[in-house]
Input
Amino acid sequence: MVTSEAVAAHARTLGFDRCGVAPATALPELDRIHDWLARGHAGEMRYLARSAGTRADIRRFLPSAQSVIVTATRYDAGRPPGAGTPAIARYAQGRDYHLVLAERLQRLLDWMREEAGAPFEAAIFVDKHHVQERVFAAYAGLGFIGKHSLLIDPELGSWMLLGGLACALPLEPGTPIADQCGACTLCLDACPTGAIVEPREVDARRCLSYLTIELEGPIPEPLRPSVGPHLFGCDVCQEVCPFNFAPAPTTDPAWQPQAGRDHPDPVALWQRPDDGLHALVAGSAMTHTSLSRLRRNLAVAIGNTGDAEAIAALDRPGDGVRNAAHSAEAPVVRDAVRWAKSRAPR
Ligand code: B12
Ligand code: SF4
Ligand code: SF4
Output
C-alpha cells in the first residue's frame, strides 16, 4: 500500500531531502497569483498569466488529482568564507535541476506504481509546469514562506529546489508549520533593488533574477548599477537569511559547481567565443537562457566594475577573432556595451 510516510521514506533514498503531501484542493493562497499579476509584478513573463487558471487550481493540471506530493532538495554546495554573493546563482552552478529532479521524481512515481498494485493517474512538475510549488510545499509542511517569498525549512534553510507530482491517490496530508521570520527584515533591507515590495511579495520587474535571466530586452538603465557583478540570478536575499547560516553544504554530486561557474571572471568570459560560452552553460539551468542575454549581463557587470582595462576588453568579444562571437552583435548587447563604456573613468 502507498502511504505518505512510505513515499517520504522512499523519496529520501532517491536524493530528496524533504517530501510531504498537500491536499489537491482549492487552497485559498493559490488565488493570490491573480492579484500579483494584476499589479504587473510578472513583468514580461506572460506565460504566468496564460497559465494562471491552472496555477490557481491543481485539478486543471491533473483532473483526477487527490494528493500533491512535494519534494525539497538542498543544492547549496558551499562557498569559501568571505567569497560574497556569487555572480552565478548557486542553483545554476551544478547540473540542470529540471532534469535531475524530473528523473528522480519519475523513479519515485515508478516505485509508487509498483507499490500500489493498481494503475492510477499522476503528473510530475518541476518549476516550468503550471503548479504553484511553494503553496503546496507549505501545505505539505515542508517549511514556511519567508519574507523573501522563498520556502524555508527551519532546519535546512532555503537553499532548496522544489518539485513534485500530483496523483489520483488519497494520501494523508502533512501539517503546515508556523511562520518563523518574526521581526526580522534582513532580506528586505539587503535586496539591491527593493524588489521585495511587501513581506512575501516580490515585484519581479525589479528582481535581479528576472532582470538577468527572464528579461529579453535591455535591463532598464536606472537598475543597471544595482545589477553589480550578477551574471545569472541573484542570491542576496538568501545569503543574509539567518536560517541559512547553520545548514551544512550538500555533498550530492549533482549540485557541485561545474565548468568554473562558482568563480566566473566576467572579462575572461566576454573574451570567450560563443562556443566557449556554450561550454559554460551546457548541462546547467543556464541553458534555458540565450547567449545574447548572458553577453548583455557580462557587459553590464563589466561596466559596473568601473575598471578602464576591463571596459576596454568589451571591444574584443571572442578575443577579437572575427565571427567567433555572433551573440555580441545582438542589439541588446550593443546597447549594454555602449552603457558600460559610459561608465569608464575619464
Ligand atoms: C516566476 C518565478 C520566479 C520569478 C518571480 C518570483 C516570485 N517571488 O514570485 C523570478 C524570476 C523573480 C524568480 C526568482 C527566483 N526564483 Co523562482 N520561480 C518562479 C516560479 C516559476 C513561479 C513562482 C510564482 O508563481 N510566483 C508568483 C507568486 C504570486 O506565487 P508564489 O511564488 O507561488 O507565491 C505564493 C506563496 O508565496 C503564497 N504565500 C504567501 N504567503 C503565504 C503563506 C502561507 C501560509 C501559504 C500557504 C502560502 C503563502 O502566495 C503566493 C501566491 O500564491 C517558481 C516555480 C513554480 N512553478 O512555482 C520558481 C521558484 C519559486 N523559484 C525558485 C528560485 C530558487 C528562485 C531564485 C532563488 C533564483 C535565483 N537565485 O536567482 C530567485 C528568488 C527571488 C525571490 N526572492 O523570490 C524556487 C524557490 C525554492 C524555494 N526554496 O522557495 C522555485 C520554487 C523553483 C523550484 N522549482 O525550485 N522566480
Ligand atoms: S533575488 Fe536578489 S533582487 Fe531578487 S528579491 Fe532576492 S535580493 Fe532582491
Ligand atoms: S532574512 Fe529574515 S525576514 Fe527574510 S526570510 Fe530570512 S528570517 Fe525571514
